[in-house]
Design goal:
This protein is of the alpha+beta class and 442 residues long. The protein contains 15 helices and ten strands. It has a domain of 70 residues. A hairpin with a 2-residue loop joins strand 6 and strand 7. Helix 1 packs parallel to helix 9. It comes from Salmo trutta.
Amino acid sequence: MVLRRPNLRSLSPATLSSSILSSLPSAQTFSNLSPDFASSTLLSSLSASFDFLCPLSSRPARSSPPAPWLDDSLRAHRTGLRAAERKWRKTRLPADLASFHSLLSTFSSSVSAAKATFYHSKFQASASNPRKLFATFSSLLNPPPPPPPSSLTADDFVNHFEKKVDDIRSSFAKSSDTAGPAHTALPCALTSFSPLSPDEISRLVTAGRPTTCPLDPIPSSLLETISGDLLPYLTSLINSSLTAGYVPSVFKRARVAPLLKKPTLDPSDVNNYRPVSLLSFLSKTLERAVLGQHSCYLSQNDLLDPNQSGFKTGHSTETALLCVTEAFRTAKANSLSSALILLDLSAAFDTVNHQILLSTLSELGISGAAHAWIASYLTGRSYQVAWREAVSAPRALTTGVPQGSVLGPLLFSLYTKSLGSVISSHGLSYHCYADDTQLIFS
């Protein structure tokens, strides 16, 4: 059995918005609350109103998700087809069999046409987005992942993920100095974040995909719809976090979903899974507010690694491939031989050392409330692993940045920025895409 909300489609956004606003204090009173109290007050209001207007009920679990190209017209056609089949099985008349075969042929043709139209639209929509285009092709060419095996539990995964990171960290050379050598002070600095206007907050709310995770009090698409009515509260909450340099505790929780690395791998082996953090929609909205100002500062002052093609606007796997290819062509033009070494960091995001990352941010001129916000974002985090119908006990996250977060990719690229100077000091050229590094020796 699964839990569902049967009247979700009929729920009026205006009714939900009115219920939420009636349970919240005035916008003026809300603006004076601490980030922790303000966030818990808002989330409690969202959850209570939604549960009251759209209560949960149970129904049998669906064996597989419905096909995305199956619209109301095809469903009606399928219903008629099943009725014709039942009639023929009851009467066994040749006329009823012919009618059933005719409907079956028409339905099959309609499904094929709808499926072709669906994927044609997806290909056109993702033509300028290589990641989405690759994901679409992958879904067509690769078999779907097998169902989750019952032999594994949520505790198996949480213990495995924790042990894997601990083993990697214990293999690092012990050092009491994680701050690194002193660096020359930069002429630029980011000491605080600028408060955002309601219009800017509204754009942040609608900027990302409205994905919903179990930590969200209401569906994210519904929150987007009513965000205009809640804008004074969202603006106060986000700006209070930015100015205080503090991330509310409720936004530091993650629900981790084990994801099979490849559909062909053994699903009963925990080593074949990687953790993906599912974060609440509002926490990712807050991260976008910080990401925008961090990215602007880093870009304007040319502080990003030019040899990193991951996580950067206007860059992709294509630019990484072009850079490596050009390095080989240049070497060949100069009659030089070349060697390429491909490196991949194991559990790269999960092993980020917080002290080294914070030290790197200081070296890049990030200080004050801007630095304190990142420190708050990294500390006090916790996660639970969800598997099948079970959830593990919470575990503290003392290292790494969450995979699936908005800020994680930028923080990781800054964390590994010093790797470039180390590589160059040994006479090698390099290029990076996310946590994949290509070393070029000519």
